[in-house]
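Hello Y.,

Per our agreement to keep a running log of every chain we model this quarter, I'm adding this entry. I've kept the format consistent with earlier entries: sequence first, then predicted structure.
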Amino acid sequence: MYWEHWEVTPGAPRCPHSFIEDNEVGTIDPTALRGLRGLLYLSLANNPPAVALPRGLFKGLETLTHLDLRGNPFVCDCRLRWLGVVGSAVPNADAGRCGTPKPRGDPNRPTAAQDFQCRRDELRPSSRCPSSRCQRSRSRWGGSRGGGGAALLRFVCAAGVGSAGGAIRAPTVINTSSPVACHPLAFGDALVVVVAQHHGGSSVWRRIGGPEQRFVLLQVLGSGRLRRPHSISSARFGGQWYIGVADSSKGGTSTLYRWVGGGFYPHQSLRPWHRDTHLEFLELGGRPAMVVCSGTRRPAVYRWSGGVFAPHTDIPHVPDVYAAKHFRLRGNVFLCLTRFLGDAKVMRWEGSMFREVQQLPVCGTEPHRDP
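Predicted structure for the entry above:
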């Protein structure tokens, strides 16, 4: 049975109690309960196989005091994790039982938020950075003390920071003024760190050997091209290393540099006067591509053609994008966009352009909450 929609017409008498029990309800439309502002008691008990509850089903039911979901052997995975939160928000709620996976402890207790263990890998605080001005990036390089595995190196623009025994330490200091971004790259036994700064010129530093060695200045980057660098990105394609520096000044020009003969040298200048904030390298349709984020225009998509990046398209309906980050999942390319104002967006590449697939509430916007 598919219970699709229950529409409450304006002016209809209030229905404080609703019992949808002992049926084979398989799917409920997310808007089925909209308009039931005076609902006090709701029972969806005993609907095997377990009714599929869509996220947001109970949204707007502020008057709900009793919720009965007993007799539904739910599949407690990530898609239903929100149910544990709803169960704790309603004063008298029985959120049913987990059919799979089996709950820990008493199998007869109501479902709780801790039963939805769908995240096995999470970011957790490790240690505090020794500098109060930390802009970090990370790179895998070299070997651990025991030889073999890769060691995770963390860098701070104010200081070269390494990882030892799980804690952060500062073995060397890169003396720069007003740094805004740093980016590490590994070239054989050498570690190169590109440091972008507002004053004194951006620079490239190199260290040969382990953490006990010091970074030495390799070159000054830009030679006046960079007025106000904002971020650094890197990519390797066609057997060459490239870095992209986004310039956010009014008359600045974001620049692509190529590693040639032991240094980075200008390869391509993008259009000026756009206050770029981030360059994201990725691959679209088997070809190198780049997304340029800017405070004055929509994100622009460039594709590699004839040894340079050529404009391809832009991403509509997403103004004031601050930064972008891509990932691949099941053969698809997704792009996460962070904005100066408004919700973040997740886009998917559809062969010729990016289309929105999800909107993510962020700090400064009104979150979408379930009761």
